[in-house]
Write a structure and sequence with these properties.
Helices cover 37% and strands 22% of the residues. It is built from 18 helices and 20 strands. The strands form seven sheets. Strands 1, 2, 3, 4 and 9 form a five-stranded mixed sheet that branches. Strand 19 and strand 20 form a beta hairpin. The radius of gyration is 32 Å and the shape is elongated.
Length: 546
């Protein structure tokens, strides 16, 4: 009887143990399963197992060699395990002096006793690491973590952008430039933990740019020197291959170092090449003349009588030199950069045809270059009824364009009349948008632009034919109306003009003393053009006859 009772007790005990075990498994897997899963996932994240490597961004050079422009680099990080810290106050005091951080904030973070990880310092200096190791603080550790690194500092910063933490959490995302535009492709897909199964991360995609590191470096050097010399507010430079649309260089100054973006004001991060508009001034005369020539409204030898001024709707337009030039051809209008002559060509063309050509040249829509937040200029004043609107637009005042749209339009002339889509990725094939003007017209306006360079001589490169046009545009006064005494100097040109291999756009804003473009941006253009001609070893097209 006793033995049977004992046997029953043992059986009940075994069933009880199994029941408790089953309950425990249910509690672990069902009730607290998500907790342990999340904890495991957070630990894997801290160890870096779930984080994908961000794709590398590469420049290129004339040999098609890859040059890393944005990559990942391991930096020391200092972190805490609050659960292991016994004397929070003393630890906070020591860390505050080493890391130059707020002691109260450190104390708040370290006091979270259930926390297994608190990042205290990203990209710690060697001095900080040495001091932490020497202090031998309980629960404070030094490890390594990958961060974005830009080996060339500020070079091409407006193209590249940078990555920064999200406002809501510490998730790093692309900010500005290619880092933002291609964030999803670059960032890859994080891994995850599902129960006891680990899904490995999918690494980010690399980007290979059309940007030539050597041309970019030289272009930015020349631009910085130009801005500093004339104490200008800012400057921009673009180099494009007119045949493919490939962007070889694109930069702005002042720039910023994406490795230390927090030291720069937010307004500097904006890319003025695609995110700003301006009145281009006399450069626009070549667009007006190309349109009038293509429509048959004028020919290179068509003449008008220049009195030095033109009065329309009660307003008087004058030439920049305040002179009358008498009987003048359309070729001479560009050579002498006459406002009255450009207004004549625009008037012969008419507002409807002129607006249609501006649309064809791409001024009414985005170019769709693969950079974020591109905007569009405003050429709508051309459609207004008053003749004065058409006249001022013909020489680039009273309308606005973006630098990227302007160089793309001039590249259309250099490319025998075919508009290409601006491209920044090597993986993209050249994309023709449309034919804008005939090949004959492109040759005519190129010959006129080449003649203008030859006669002015400032942009001329020995042994090469160069086509180009200056622009000295007055800056509008947005408060009082009209224009200020400040100017924006621009030059756009291409070489060799017989078979253009590159187009250069260079501009500075508000140079001190408001000098003409011929004094500022034209010599800078010539210096950069000479570099590119030598760099690519391009054959001369203007050798003296034997």
């Amino acid at each position: 009887m006793v033995s049977r009772f004992r046997f029953t007790i043992i059986i009940l005990g075994i069933f009880g143990a199994f029941a408790y075990l089953i309950y425990g498994l249910h509690d672990l897997q069902i009730k607290r399963g998500s907790y342990f899963s999340n904890r495991a996932e957070s630990q894997y994240k801290l160890a870096g197992f779930l984080e994908p490597h961000r794709g590398i961004i590469y420049f290129t050079d004339k040999e098609k060699k890859k040059v890393p422009a944005a990559l990942n680099k391991a930096y020391p990080v200092i972190f805490a395990v609050p659960k292991e810290i016994k004397d929070v106050k003393k630890t906070s005091q020591t860390l505050a002096s080493i890391l130059s951080q707020d002691e109260a904030e450190l104390n708040k973070n370290l006091a979270q006793k259930n926390s297994l990880y608190r990042l205290l310092q990203k990209k710690a200096t060697q001095e900080q690491v040495e001091k932490i190791n020497k202090a031998d603080l309980e629960g404070i550790y030094v490890d390594q973590q990958e961060f974005r690194f830009y080996p060339f500092g500020s070079l091409a910063a407006h193209i590249l952008g940078f990555i920064a933490p999200n406002e809501q959490d510490d998730t790093l995302r692309g900010r500005y430039g290619l880092e933002r535009y291609f964030n999803d492709r670059l960032s890859g897909t994080p891994g995850r933990v599902t129960g006891d199964k680990i899904t490995r991360p999918q690494q980010g995609e690399d980007l290979f740019l059309t940007i030539d590191r050597n041309i970019q470096e030289e272009a930015e050097r020349i631009l910085k020197k130009l801005v500093d010399t004339y104490q200008a507010q800012q400057g921009m430079v673009i180099v494009q291959n007119p045949k493919t649309g490939n962007i070889l260089s694109l930069g702005a100054y002042p720039a910023f170092d994406p490795n230390e973006y927090s030291k720069t004001s937010i307004k500097t991060f904006l890319n003025p090449v695609i995110q700003s508009i301006y009145e281009p001034g006399s450069i626009f005369k070549v667009v007006t003349m190309a349109s009038a020539l293509d429509a048959g409204a004028v020919t290179p030898t068509t003449t008008y009588y220049d009195k030095g001024y033109l009065t329309l709707n009660g307003r008087t337009i004058r030439n920049w030199d305040l002179k009358a030039h008498g009987q003048t051809t359309m070729t001479e209008v560009i050579e002498k950069s006459l406002n009255t002559g450009s207004a004549y060509a625009g008037g012969q063309l008419g507002k409807e045809r002129y607006y249609n050509y501006l649309t064809q040249f791409g001024f009414t829509k985005k170019t769709n270059i693969q950079l974020p937040d591109e905007i569009v200029g405003d050429v709508e004043p051309v459609k207004k009824a008053r003749p004065i609107r058409l006249a001022t637009a013909s020489f680039g005042q009273g309308i606005s364009v973006t630098p990227i749209a302007l160089i793309n339009a001039v590249a259309t002339i250099a490319n025998k009349g075919i508009l290409m889509k601006p491209n920044i990725l090597q993986s993209n094939k050249p994309q023709q948008v449309r034919r804008v003007i005939s090949e004959k017209t492109a040759q005519e306006i190129t010959a006129i632009m080449t003649s203008a360079v030859k006669k002015a001589r400032v942009a001329q490169v020995p042994k090469y034919k160069v086509a180009g046009k200056t622009g000295t545009a007055q800056v509008p006064d947005f408060k009082k109306g009209g224009y200020t005494d400040d100017v924006i100097n621009t030059y756009v040109g291409f070489a060799p003009s017989s078979d253009a291999q590159f187009v250069i756009f260079i501009r500075i804003d508000k140079p001190l003393g408001a000098p003409l473009a011929g004094q500022t941006v034209v010599p800078a253009f010539r210096e950069l053009a000479e570099f590119i001609l030598n760099y690519y070893n391009i054959a001369p097209d203007n050798l003296p006859e034997l």
